[in-house]
Fold this protein.
Amino acid sequence: MFLSPAAASLSIAASPASEIETELLIVPLFEDDPLEDVPGLAEASGGHIRRAQESRELRGRPYEYFVTPMAGWKASRVLLVGAGKRAEFDTERLRRVATAAALGARVRRVGRIAFMMRGDLEPRAAVQAAAEGLGLAPFSVDRYKSVEKAGPPAEKIVLVVPQLSDDL
């Protein structure tokens, strides 16, 4: 069954990352990023994120991703997706990072995802770029494939905005 982007539920939340109830919390990761603005993330992963960064398995390079279970958070897993250098992060990179992450969630057959907004972009433009990127993941040419097909796109998507303003 194919869901069009219009069939997905898209909402915005300003809750702390630990309080977002979802199957998969997606967090963009910049190169050499200590993730200080996401308190408790490293601990909730049981140290897996820290070990992956220390071993250089996870570097924050564009579009690479790392998935690990979470403990003590409402999200059961986190997907860290590489966003490249913070200084080079723009709305086009955000759009592509969001698409790559949503496709990674789709391969894992995840029905509820939350995408955490990070970076120094203007909030309205960032939300629009992320929503567009997440909306691209449902489009597929799977019907032409003879090998295993990706799962259905997410049915529920939440954009997590650290400080929700009235102009969003």
